[in-house]
Amino acid sequence: MRIAFGFLAMQDIVDFALATLRDRSPVGTGDDEHTGLHRDSHTVFLNGQVVQDGDVGAFRKGD
Fold first, then answer.
1. Are 37 and 58 in contact (CB under 8 A)?
2. Which domain holds residue 39?
3. Full-prediction pTM beyond 0.90?
């Protein structure tokens, strides 16, 4: 008997990628008027469109 289960883990992947990018991004120093701007400016795109807050609920198999 064979049991197969397919699932999409895209939200988990995007969450991990964004967390890793933010953790490893420079934040600047106290003298920088834009402290954290680079870290907070990462953007997720899905099929050429910006995905707000990394929510990939519109992701479909093959995207």
1. no
2. 31-63
3. no
Q: Determine phi and psi for 51, rounding to 5 degrees.
A: -105, 120
In terms of DSSP bridges, do strands 49-51 and 44-46 run parallel, antiparallel, or are they unpaired?
antiparallel
CB 59 within 8 A of CB 51: no
Q: Which amino acid is at 8?
A: L
Distance CA 31, CA 25 (A): 17
How far from each other are the two terminal CA atoms of the chain, in whole angstroms?
31
Residue 12 inside a domain? The answer is no
Output phi, psi for 16, to 5 deg.
Answer: -65, -45
Under DSSP, is residue 11 helix (H, G, I), strand (E, B) or coil?
Answer: helix
Query: What is the residue-level pLDDT of the chain in tens, covering all 63 positions?
Result: 888 777 677 888 888 989 999 999 988 877 888 888 888 888 888 888 888 776 777 677 777
